[in-house]
Amino acid sequence: MTTVSVISPFYNEGRGLQLFVEKVAHVFAGLDYDLTIIMVDDGSKDNSWSSLKEIVPENFKLLGIRLAKNFGKEAAIAAGLSLADSDVVITIDCDLQHPPELMESMLKFWEEGAEIVLAVKQERQKESFSTGWQPSFFIKFSIGLLKMISMDLAILYFWTAKSSLR
Predict the structure, then answer these.
(1) All structural domains of the chain with their residue ranges
(2) What whole-number distance in Å separates Cα of residue 80 and Cα of residue 65?
(3) CA distances (Å), 81 to each of 67, 112, 113, 135, 161, in order?
(4) CA 95 – CA 16 distance, rounded (Å)
(5) Fold (topology level) of 3-122
(6) pTM to 2 decimals?
(7) pLDDT in tens, 56-115
């Protein structure tokens, strides 16, 4: 059976972890994959870690990594990748701003031969000025520096290169 690891970094998401895991498990319930969910606590200061430990997995494996401090999303994803031993790896934030239901479509593209499937959100939800200007400024500022390469994709390239060296 094809194995899939879903890696989800989180920071102070104690109240939403159970729902996220349930939604991911629901997506995979009707699919023919062996699922492992890898949750990476990026130094949360709330009850996130204890909330994660209370989740009882059914029909899937649940692994948790707890980082000593907040290293950032990219480092948390890299930590999750270090545990992933599967045919397919999917990274997704657990705040449900990106619907886990898209994973089924993404897996179909992979089954059709795509090596990398990247979902990009077309529209952002309405945000207040204080939360909306910061990402906008960062994106405009960093386009020239990063040449439109997301950090997630950069991590993926590094991980692919590293695994081909083994």
Answers:
(1) 3-122, 123-166
(2) 7
(3) 14, 23, 22, 26, 13
(4) 7
(5) Spore Coat Polysaccharide Biosynthesis Protein SpsA; Chain A (3.90.550)
(6) 0.76
(7) 998 999 999 999 999 999 999 999 999 999 999 999 999 999 999 999 999 999 999 988
